[in-house]
Structures are given as C-alpha cells and as structure tokens.
Amino acid sequence: MSIVLRVNTTTKEIIREELKEEYRFLGGRSLIARVLTDEVDPTCDPLGAENKLILCTTLLAGTTLPMAHRLSAGGKSPLTGGIKEANSGGTAASLLARHGIKMIILEGLPQTNDWYILHIQKDGSSQLVDATDYVGLNNYDLAAKIQERFGKNVGIISIGLAGERGYRNSTLQLIDASTGYPSRAAARGGLGAVMGAKKIKAVVIERAANPYEFPYADKERYEAVRKKYIQRVLSSPRTESMQKVGTMSMIDFTSTVAALPVRNFSGQFFEQAEAIKSKAFVERAFIGGGRNKEGCQPGCIVRCSNRFHTKDGEYLTSGLEYETVALCGANCGIADFDVIARLDRMCDDLGVDTIETGATIAVCMEAGKISFGDGEGAIALLQEMIDGTEFGRLLGQGTEAVGKALGVKRIPTVKGQALPAYDPRSIKGLGVTYATSAMGADHTAGMTLGPGIDPSKKDFQVERSRQSQMVAAVTDSFTCSFGWGELNNEEILPEIMASLYGGEWTYGQIMNIGKETLKLERAFNQAAGLTEVDDCLPAFFYNEISAIDTVFDISAEEMQELFNY
Amino acid sequence: MIKVNYYELEWEDGKTVEDLLQLIKEDRQLRLLTHDTYTVIVNNKLIPPQDYAHTPLRSGDEVRVYPVMAGG
Q: Which residues contact A230 (CB under 8 A, 6 or more apart)?
C-alpha cells in the first residue's frame, strides 16, 4: 500500500509517488496529521491555494480484515480554522486499496472556472476529466450520472452544491456499499468546501483490473489472528444490538439521562422520546421495504446500517444514524421519523453535515425564525440552503455564524463546530473531549463512557478524556469504530501489526501513534492561532442546570491538564 | 419502586444490582438501554462489578446504568 497520487489543480499535473518510508506505519487520521504538518502552512486560507485536501486509507487497508476500509479526509478546516480529519465508510477506500493507493493529495488552486473529475481507471492510470456537465448537480443526481458514464460499481467521493458554493458545513459524500447511493459522509469541518475550492467535483475510482496484494509479513499468523478477531466481533452482544437497531439504539439510553440534546441543548428530557426510540425506529424502518443489517463498506460484518423508505415504498435515505435523529430530531423538538429521514436525505444530497445542520436549525428556532417542533419549517430552511438564497447561504456557514448573525446567546459550538448528540452536563468526560479536541466538538474524538467513573461527576473526567482521545486517534488510523472494540486489546492488535508489517509490536507502541497524532494536531492548531480560549465549552453549559440537576463544572484551567500527555 | 435512569420501575425489595442487570438483559423494552458493559451508580455511589451480586436495591433507590458507547 504505497502509492500516492499528487494532483496539482493549478497545473493539472498528476504525479504518482511512493509513500515516504517515515509514513509507513501511519494511516487515516495519523497520516493526515503528519502530512498536514509537513506540507501545509497552518496560517493558510482553508479555501486558498496553500491548503491541501488529503484523502487516504487506514493502516489495515488492502488486507482482508473486515471494517478496515474507512476513508479519511483531511485538511485545514474552513469551519474551525484548525486541523481536520473526517472519515467515512462507503466503497471508495476499498477500491483505492485494490489499486494500492494509500493517499491522494489535492493541492493548488485553479486559475480558471473549469471543473474536473479525478478519474482513476481500472489499469491504475489517472486523469482529470472535464466536469462541465456535472457542475450544479447535487450528490444523488451526480452519482447517477457518473455511474451511467463510468459504470455502476465505481467508487465516488463527491460534493454537492454546498461544496461548490463553499459552505463551511459541507461534506464529502461516498457511495454506500449496500444501497449504491451517495449516503455516506466524511461530514465534519467543511472539507467539501476545500474540494470545491479546488474545483474537483468528484473522485471516481474504477475497480482495479489487477488487484493489489497486501505484502503480509506472515500470512499464516495473520489468518489466525483474523479468525480470532472475527469470532469475537460476531459473538459480541454489541454486534447483535448494532445489527438489530444500529446506532439508533443509543437513544434509548441517552434519552433517559438527559444526554440526548433537546431543543437547542436545553438540558431537558424529551417528552416525545418514545416516538424516536429504537422500538419506534425499528417499527417505522421496516415500513415500505426498508431494512436493517446493512453494511456501509464492502465485507463489513457488524452491518449496523439501514435503508429507510417512504411509506409508499420509495427509497429515501440510508444510514439513518443516532446523531442525525438526535440533532435534526430531538434537538429541534421534532419526533417524526419521516421528517427526520427527509432532512437526512436533503443533507446528503446537498452535501452538508447533519450534525451541524441540525444544530443550526435549532439555533434558528431559538432565535424565533421558526418554532421548535416545526418539521416543515426545518425542511424549508434546508431548502433555502439548497436554493442558495441569501439566508440559505448564511445557514451554510454553520451554527456559530448563524447564531451570531441572529443574536442568539446559547450557541452550542466549540472551535466553531457544533456539538454532537451528547449533552456535556450528563456525560462530562465528553464535554472535556468536545472542549479540548483539536477537531472541535466531536464525539468520535474520545468517547468517555466506561467502567469505573460516574459520568455526571467531574472526578477523573480529564484523565479519562485524555486516554480516550489517544485511543480514538488510533481507531481513526486503523478501522471503523464499530469494529474497534474487539480489536483494541493487547492480544489482537499487536499480533495484527506484527503479522502485517513484521517485527514484534507492543500495545503501548501502537497507542503511541495516537499520542503523537494528538501532539501534531495541537501544534498545528496553535500555529494556526488557536489558543486556550478555544478549549472551552459555551458558558451556558456552566450556568444552566439540566434536568438531572447538573451543570458542566470542569474549569478551563482543569481541562488544560489534559495536554500533559 | 426504584428509579433506573430516572424511570420508575416496580421492584421487590432485596433484589440486587445483578438481578437488575439480568432484568435489563431479558426485558425487550429495557435490553437495548445498554450494551454489554456497565457502570452502575446507586444513590450517587459507584458500585464495583464484584459487588453487583451483594448490593441489594430497596424502594426509593435511584440507579443509573451506563453502557460503553462509540460513534454514531
């Protein structure tokens, strides 16, 4: 796995390079942190020529290990002004790995208004193809047109109108392995706008004619540990729950401890929670031909995804996830799956982050633009983003920009990025992660629930978040987080590394990849101008008491202890 | 009656934390509340796993049960 494609969008030159030796034991998030550190000026304009968009695969890509093919995207974020890595399932990483491609770097800035598709052909050659006919399309029509021209089974990484227009909440959309639709998103931080600035409408990857063979250091040893890993995943009760309900099962828990965000992070319980809990979800999801147990990437054995149809039986969206239902649902006072699924489809089509969008709509509700619970009003706001009205373009700049423009005092963001679906007064360790992660508020940057600590108390949360953030940086360098639980132990993980790359590995060595990644990311942000002031939660979480009688009470000074790695 | 994650639940005094976790596992309504790993807090006191079987729950007790979570 050693090919790097460097695409200069100014000169249109594509250079095929060998992966640097010092990058060999990096992948996904850790690789992005290192390349951005080495190649991008942290003070640059995120939508300018100096920023780069990096697309890369994980350390396990190219192997037969299930869940290994996440695609990581990275660059300086137009939303946070800091470093960003966002990852996604879908088919792209698997197809890149079959070409032996570890990384694509899009750099420079075009001097004309011409748009291109980066086309990787089945023989491994690549070219920039005129994309004039594709400009102005949103992701679903775009994917259909690309599939018609290049073949049904191509991988696609694309932007909709949001990326074209430079919306700071814009995504990169990828093709879902089960449905064939562009419903998977590298969603956070506005990386769609970075690709849009470089006038690349899509990356299209054909299936390699001569598939790359991973050079296993010890194939027999690898097969033994792979078998053990798969057995553990398949026998895990978590896998059973993920297959039956998917991430939506989280709502059954978060709604009971006031962690589910309700009406712009009011800290209250959601009176209509029963209508969006997993029982209601499963009942609704099967109407019209929808189904569960879908894998978003080829070869997945957790299969936590789903497809959601209209009641008339038409496909509407896939991968309706907890975060989307929480932010576009409860956080907007909406408890109707049909409305939430429609919002999800519109977000994927336009190419905007459902977390950021849900939080933005809720801030509009708080400002009185529409009422909490007004589903049709929420759809109308998203339609404004699609139509590109003046207010719609403001909505595309994200929750913080909208909140400030509307004079809202309670804006739930950190480093300009909206909080995901866990209220930090109920799960305080996650509040520490939101505040201190270089990514901005991001639940995947360090989940803190686990044995031994009361999540509603401040004790030990900084230490737990530090440890979780290190582990999360490793997870995002290796695999999907839903396959990580059974991989993340001293028996399996070092054995996998040894069988793939040779030598003997310790668990501590592997965790060190995470620690070094966090250090690089923080240094990038500091050089970009972010300071301790940016490592805080909004004031209202400190002074508004939630329904479980808590406030967030870990001071900014206490959270700075997190950086003593 | 005890409270589990702020929800009221009929309860027979003297049954233990372990009995509660078993109930959660078997009850269709409750079972998806948590996955396989728990943090259990009774009346604001953290209960270590080795004490689940001999920590009785009595009427009026407030219990919080947390799963391990990832992503979404």
A: A66, A301
Burial per residue of A522-544, b for 16 or more beta-carbon CB atoms within 10 angstroms, e otherwise:
bebbeebebeeebbbbbebbbee
Q: Show the domain range for A387.
A: 239-422
Full-model pTM = 0.96
Nearest-angstrom CA–CA distance, A291 and A305: 9
CA atoms within 13 A on the CB side of A558: 17
Query: Considering the domain boundaries, does residue B8 fall inside one?
Result: yes
Averaged in consecutive runs of 10 residues, what is the pLDDT profile of chain A (565 residues)?
A: 94 98 97 98 98 98 97 98 98 98 98 97 98 98 98 98 98 98 98 98 98 97 98 90 88 92 98 93 94 96 96 97 97 98 98 98 98 98 98 98 98 98 97 98 93 92 97 97 92 98 97 98 98 97 97 97 94
- Tell me the CATH number at B11: 3.10.20.30
Helix (H, G, I), strand (E, B) or coil at B57: coil
State the residue range of the domain holding B31. Answer: 2-66
Q: Which of A358, A442, A369, A364 is nearest to A404 (CA)?
A: A364
Interface-testing mutation among B17, B35, B36, B51, with chain A (most A C-beta atoms within 10 A): B35
ipTM for the assembly:
0.83
Q: If you search the block for the tokens 């291109």, which residue do you land on?
A: A116
Boundary of a domain, candidates A422, A456, A473:
A422
Q: Enumerate the residues of chain A whose CB falls inside 8 A of the CB of residue B5.
A: 253, 256-257
CB contact under 8 A, B6 and A453: no
Residue A202 has phi, psi (to 5 degrees) of -165, 155
Residue linked to tokens 């920039």 = A128
Flag whether A251 is in a domain.
yes
SS3 A309: strand
Q: What is the token pair recorded at A351?
A: 């190419």
Q: Say whether A449 and B7 touch across the interface (CB within 8 A).
A: no
Whether residue A534 is contained in a domain is answered as no
